[in-house]
Amino acid sequence: MTSPRFAVACLIALTCGVVTAAEPAAAPARLRLRDESSLLGFVAASPDPQVLRWQSPSFVAPFEFPLSRINGVHFPIDQGKVNPQGAFGFELAGRNLLYGELLSIDATQVVVKLPFQPEPVRIERSIVHRIFRQTDDSRLIYLGPTGLEGWKQTEPKEGSVFREETGQIVTDVEGTIAADIAFPTQAACEMEISWKGDPDFSFELGVPNSPDPWKEPLRIEVIDQTVVAIRDTSTDADLAQLQAVGPGEGRLRLMVFIDQLKPQFLIFTPAGQLLADLRVTETTAAPWSVRLVNRTGSVRLERLRVSRWNGARPQEVVAAKSRLHRVDGAIDYGVVESFDAQSRVFVVRGDQGEVRVPVAEVGSLFFSELAPIDSQGVAVAGLDGTRLTGALLGIDNAQIRVQPAGITEPVVLPIDRVRSLLAVGETPEGMTAGEGVTVGTLQINDQFIRGWLVDGRKTTDVGCLVWRPESAMNAVALRAGESGRVVYKEPPPPPSQAELQRRQQLQSQQQQQGGALNAGQPMVEALSGEFAESDGDARNSTLPRLHLRTGDTISCRKVTVEEQGVVIESDSADAKRVS
Known about the structure:
disordered N terminus, Jelly Rolls, single chain, flat, about 45% strand, mainly beta, 45 strands
């Protein structure tokens, strides 16, 4: 007779005699793999930058994962948001962002001193989009997002559907997330949102902390493949079309100016072109919230900046031209020829000749069109808002070394200043477990790892269980005293109320017909005898016992762990293998 397969999760008690050095005292990070596995642990030094070595506290040695199998690493945030160090910010191609001290500018490169490395780095001028001055400007209210910090998911009520990637907020399913921001009476807001798929979202500014349904915010949302701005109240409404959209990837960049005294909402492109002038007759009482609502598709909030506004309309600019923006609002068009750290003066050459501007008068500098760059490798997000994409040169429990395209020297970031590290690039084909190997999911200490069991006696001198993750290059034994379970097939969900009613009706019909229900009684009694006998064996403490997720216990004369599953010899069960 063929032995039945147990479609259950085995509860395994793991006892190993291996003792290794204790893991670091710091809170563990979380590694997420592309097969949806998730492990707690710490980064271990790796001689190969294309291999991430990951030490989980539950295992005696590090796993080795090819970088192509990594989704991302999310580090613990102990100190919250960190203010950027350095007088300048540098927006680069590939949406990279660095902070530091500007040392010089010439015709080919920008030289910058970064906070965490002794030597300056040289950035090709062709990848520099914007340089802006960091000041103690009291006008700034909010700059982010820096991950999910300060944001709260309001829909759905249970389960997290929003996540952070390189400091940005992302979701692929329906949900709502909001943040309380202290908007001043006159405010300027810069926002950038991108999407994939068929977009259906709304971004709302001025969401009142009030249940009054007529206190409506400014909604920037997608309606019939068009991004529109809507502001309506109990007595008035206004609407304007902003941008046509279609299926696939897209991006929306806007500058919104809010005057609650008039009240009025002005919406501009980043180049200063007026898109909408919405006027209503009611204001929304402070405090305000900002809300992102996604209905379908994948949406990403990349940037949000809120500051005080003096009421002056922005000038329309020629976006393709290099220019210098002064803090008083004036604009000097021309090529930024040089900057000298000693004299603290920018030299701009335009149609009217050379202009020398002291650094104290400069707000930001825009360079010409950007050259495309290779975005393969890893994307690193810092606690201070730093974003960096490039080839991973090295990583350990102290620092990350990345080589971005267009920067001559590697960039070094301390691990304790990093929010997350994500692998960037195409997803490779899945790895195969090999013939005869049954893949399951090891669930242990808030970790979920797809893979399979390996007989510990084949790899070590002790008889402990060894786990080979599906995405790893090696198998590792669990630590002494660890316990968990291996799920080979999830049990079916509990029946719905409608299904329970249907079963009750069917049972009632069988009882009325007579005989149908009693016909199975001998089989039920036989099975009851089997389980009673099994329970009797289980009470024999001298025999090993295998605990099944169903609640049953099988006493076994012999238990062997093989790659195909757990092989048993038992007088109380016909099955010889639990897979």
